[in-house]
Amino acid sequence: MTTPAATIAIADAVLEAHVRVERSGWQLDVDLQVRSGGVLALLGPNGAGKSTALRVIAGLLPAASGRVTVGGRVWEDTKTGVRLPAEQRSLGVVFQDYLLFPTMSARDNVAFGLRAKGSDKQTARAHADRWLARVGLLEQAAQRPHQLSGGQAQRVALARALAATPEVLLLDEPLAALDAGTRMSVRSDLRRHLAEFDGATVLVTHDPLDALVLADRVAVIEAGRIVQTGTPQEITRHPRTRYVAQLVGLNLLVGSATGTRVRLHDGTELITSEPHESDVFVVARPTSIAVHRDVPHGSPRNVWPGVVTSIEQHGDLVRLFVSGPPDVIVDVTPESTAALRLGVAEPVWLSIKATDLTVYDAGV
Amino acid sequence: MSDVAVETATVSARRPRARVPYALFVPAAVGVVFLLLPLVGLLIRTPWRRLPALVGSADVRTALRLSLETASAATVIAIVLGVPIAWVLARLEFRGRALLRALILLPLVLPPVAGGIALLLAYGRRGVVGGWLLKDFGISLPFTTAAVVMAETFVAMPFLIVSVEGSLRGLDRRYDYAAATLGASRLFTFRHVTLPMLGPGIAAGAVLCWARALGEFGATITFAGSYPGTTETMPLRVYLALQDNPDAAIALSLVLLVVSVAVLACLRDRWLRI
Q1: Which residue segment(s) compose the domain that B140 sits in?
Q2: Is the CB of A89 less than 8 angstroms away from the CB of B181?
Q3: How many CB pairs under 8 A join A and B?
Q4: Structural domain span for residue A292
Q5: What's the whole-number mean pLDDT along residues B142-162?
Q6: In total, how many domains does chain B have?
């Protein structure tokens, strides 16, 4: 089962942060812990406060209240008034648009951290070259950032962040600036480098795939709060909010179960295969729901009428948004869309087998 | 980058042609003639054959060298003092910033002669600082080459400050943040990140400042006088030559015109393309 929302209790945490930031009409309040070698993804929609949390940990933004400790050392504590400036925190940050210094070569960008900490030029450059070799960019060492491709710039930014062997690595939407094709390969490279990094990593992303591939723990942030935490598997199998379910491409229905009957909050009833006696989440995969023009007959399944509200291309499939109740998304093949002559505002019948519904305890 | 370029190209291609209010052509044409005629006159009246002799004469060479040296010195001082001032104006928020900026930029609009008088009152032999310098250190500033440099710096530094402040405001401050997360102190960040990125802005400001210093007349003649070899710069030489040797004055003006054209050529990327 997932741990209760809003806390991530980890015994051997390296990074522990409780961060509260207030703006007019907006508040961020998150509590997070990352163990040594761990990668925590903060997943959430734009404007949820993910990047703000990152900036507080980096020391670029003061917290209204909170505490950040790394390896037992206090970086920030609003109670005691301790606040290390960013340059005294053992950090590496990969910014969304990388912020590579445009006047320096890739090598000098990577060497910058060591130079800033007092290494002489030659030592720093030799070290930078080893890092560039590690990310496969030694040949580009003399090039300026504007001469690099997006994927290369991203890897230079990563090398720059890691070169001074920080205790904490912060990644702010590290793949967002890349096109879809590059993102795939850079993502798997990034995964490899993160596996080799033994500090604590916090990754901010709005892309669930980034979170699921790169992180070993995911915290979903909505409107400034953590609404669910868990391993990628837990998040995808048992989403606890509609947002998370949509993120991972699932229908999440909430209701209370009596045996195999689940009465949903919208008043409709579903038949499930496993009995429960509590408030439950019911997950229906968009591909498991069948669409019909007329009332379907036959085997025991859940059948309800709806109206198609919009139609979108979704990979190889066509995604239908159908208002019920319950409202669901349904993925069908382009062939069946054509065969059923589906269009917006068309009335349809939906059905799903009891065995295709996943039911789990809604808990606290 | 290429996407951006394509985008701009499409936009400008779509921009509708201006609707021309033809009546504006008349004052515009009069204005252009008014501006260009003196330059044409200068070129027509230039004694081309005697030009090498006029420009090459010893006193002209002395004035020219003094001008180049003092203008360059003033520019260096303006960079050393002006870039930090620009940083303060662009990056710090404090009460009275607008007032400070107004005071610093005052020499842009102040008549240079008044600036010269003000310099005398501050650094002259009886000035606030000048009197103390003379009494305690035996240093007298007015009517020395140092006074020329001071007058030029006073008048020209605001040009550099304006240019550099504009560049600083255009810089993405997040580079400072990136440097901080890499452990760089503020001074290290300024030296290794901010300053290199400011390079073009400082260069443009320096050229402008240098050109203004080279042409300085009013404050210089008031504060430094006109002594050949020590304080007589090109503009002063031109003015004095006009009384006894008009041809020399014309020839020297031509030299200053050539320098000005060269300055414009240096600044073309920044000023002539919109």
Answers
A1: 55-271
A2: yes
A3: 69
A4: 251-361
A5: 94
A6: 1
